[in-house]
Amino acid sequence: MRNLGRVILAAVAASLGPPNAAQRRPFAMALRCVRALVDFHLMAQYHSHTQETLEYLERYLANFHSTKEVFQEFRASKKTVQQTTQAIQQLRAEQQHATQASQATPSKRRRQAVQD
To answer: Is 0.85 surpassed by the pTM of this model?
Structure first.
């Protein structure tokens, strides 16, 4: 998990690419946000903490909260989550029905056709 923390900041930076003038502020904010989260995560894994490490944790968490707004536009609404969940449930029900129909014997298929 520590290796992921070390790599993720570089991956985010590389995926953002060189920003144009309008993108500089949001890109820098996104990198600060990810860095604060990674730093917090790495520091939180210490086996014990001193007053100094606790202050670092508080600072990293405060930095994360002050910069996380850059990602708010990508947050899914509750309605979107509900619609996605319903669509997945519908697909699963259809798949289960198709699986049951394909496994049915000819006599079961006739009974099922009569019931439908």
So the answer is: no
